[in-house]
Specification:
4-stranded mixed β-sheet; Lyase 2-enoyl-coa Hydratase, Chain  A, domain 2; alpha/beta; 7-stranded mixed β-sheet
Length: 293
């Protein structure tokens, strides 16, 4: 995963295996545009394929996490990608459909499809695109001053990047109906009560809390955690019999991985497990068990 500046965000990586994606257009409330979305999808593909990355954290600079799409950029005022410009496509109905399916929706799809766990550190306003991106993450920590919601109906628009699906998963049909139809934008504490975020932190403590969570997740058995992440999301859409079969197939992998042997051994020896030796630089292509095991 290449660190550095991209269109609308910066990428950093820490020794613990935690990558940080920081939206860095505070003057535009970190609003998104086509080149930013294209770069995000590319960076998430890099994160998927990079064994040095175990967890990805999203956050923003300034007063916003991400306040939705930057409509001025969609009007053609900004194109900073080194790749050729992307037509935003919203000039006609077919263009809108294509733009959503090929450019906007793939961001949240890439986050959900990422095997590595993701954390949204919601530092400020998270609206529409930014809200759905946060909901697509596996964990959410909000600064106490943060506000979040979809509120697309205020403009006669729809939560077209998957927000309705994500809210149904978090709130159920009745809760999503109330949230979206009443155009609700909630404070962090109410979001916590609704189950939209896992934790609320003071603004000055947000990065530390997100770091602590991300590093905790990065220390866990990565193979089993990635399989379990996929199984949890699959379980939300499968019947019980299919969910049983699905996790049995994944268990056939995890039970025979060196991390499972280490987990049992550490329990017997009454010590903390040392998972993920297969990810350590000195690991060779052979067995990662201790000699003589």
């Amino acid at each position: 995963m290449e660190t550095g500046s991209y269109s609308g965000f910066e990428v950093g990586r820490r020794e613990s295996g935690v990558a940080w994606i920081t939206f860095d257009r505070p003057e535009r409330m970190n609003g998104m545009d086509p080149p930013m979305k294209r770069d995000l999808v590319e960076v998430l593909l890099q994160a998927q394929m990079d064994d040095r990355v175990r967890v990805v954290v999203f956050t923003g600079k300034g007063r916003a996490f991400c306040a939705g799409d930057d409509l001025k950029a969609y009007a053609g005022s900004r194109e900073t990608s080194v790749l050729p410009p992307i037509p935003h496509g919203h000039a006609n109905p077919v263009g809108t459909y294509d733009g959503l399916r090929a450019l906007s929706q793939p961001v949240n799809t890439a986050i959900r499809n990422l095997d590595k766990l993701t954390v949204a550190a919601i530092n400020g306003v998270a609206i529409q695109t930014g809200f759905s991106l946060a909901l697509a993450c596996d964990f959410r920590i909000a600064a106490r001053a943060a506000r979040m919601g979809s509120a697309t109906l205020r403009f006669g628009l729809l939560p077209d990047e998957g927000g309705q699906f994500l809210l149904v998963q978090h709130l159920g049909v009745a809760g999503a109906m109330d949230f979206l139809m009443r155009k609700r934008i909630v404070q962090a504490e109410e979001a916590l009560a609704l189950g939209l975020v896992h934790e609320v932190a003071e603004p000055e403590e947000l990065e530390a809390r997100a770091t602590a969570l991300a590093e905790e997740l990065a220390r866990g058995p990565q193979v089993a955690m990635r399989l379990l992440k996929r199984s949890i999301y699959n379980a939300a859409e499968l019947g019980f019999a299919q969910a049983l079969d699905e996790i049995a197939a994944k268990t056939a992998v995890s039970d025979h991985h060196p991390d499972a042997r280490e987990g049992v051994r550490s329990f017997v020896e009454k010590r903390e497990p040392r998972f993920n030796r297969w990810l350590e630089p000195e690991a060779d292509s052979g067995s990662q068990d201790e000699p003589g095991d």
